[in-house]
Specification:
By secondary structure, this protein is an alpha/beta fold. Helix content is about 20%, strand content about 30%. It has three helices and ten strands. Helix 1 crosses helix 2. Bound molecules: inosinic acid (IMP) and magnesium ion.
């Protein structure tokens, strides 16, 4: 197992290994493959954090899929500010399609709320959420998270796409803030 690391001013400790993540991501892809049935789904990757998850998930999704990207700016530091801004909008046609949002993490749900509002405007036939991580203690809304990889405690994590002030995204394992 790798050792503790420092990012900016904080120490993070190894939490979930790359192999465990990959196993979970492949499991999620299998579930969604079943759910999608015969239709060609559209996956909406929420940048930046979901890029690594989406890459492994979509490689494991061994059927036709349309892929789109959106980017919402949220968060600075390790606590949610609730402030969000749309930086990149949907470009693919979603009307009547089976649409899945690929999220790295759902924390308070503020970002998800904005994403859902944005995507709903395009009138998808079905809209579901796939999130690799979910912090139930922090979640403030009632939208169901249809597919969850790991339910985790309300403690900050980095790695596998997730950052702490823009560092840590390229770590292959997940690390948790040490307290
Ligand atoms: P929410 O809007 O509070 O749900 O936060 C969602 C966004 O905040 C995510 O897309 C991440 O970019 C970021 N975030 C939330 N929790 C964490 C964490 O534990 N580590 C890194 N980023 C996080
Ligand atoms: Mg971030």
């Amino acid at each position: 197992m790798p050792s503790d690391i420092r990012i900016h001013d904080k120490i993070f400790t190894p939490y979930i290994s790359h192999n465990e993540i990959l196993e979970k991501v492949r499991f999620l892809a299998g579930k969604v493959l079943q759910d999608a049935g015969e239709e060609t789904p559209v996956f909406i990757v929420v940048l930046k954090g979901s890029f690594m998850f989406a890459s492994d998930f979509l490689k494991a999704f061994e059927k036709d899929a349309v892929i789109d990207f959106i980017r919402i700016k949220s968060y600075e530091g390790t606590t949610s500010t609730g402030k969000t801004e749309v930086l990149l909008d949907v470009t693919e046609k979603l009307q009547g399609k089976k649409v899945y949002i690929l999220e790295d993490i759902v924390d308070t749900g503020n970002t998800l709320k904005i994403v859902l509002e944005l995507v709903q405007k395009h009138q998808p036939g079905q809209l579901k959420i796939v999130s690799l991580f979910y912090k139930p203690e922090a979640y403030k809304y009632d939208y169901p998270i249809d597919f969850v990889g790991f339910e985790i405690p309300n403690r900050f994590i980095v790695g596998y796409g997730l950052d702490y002030n823009e560092l840590g995204r390229n770590l292959k394992n997940i690390y948790q803030l040490k307290i």
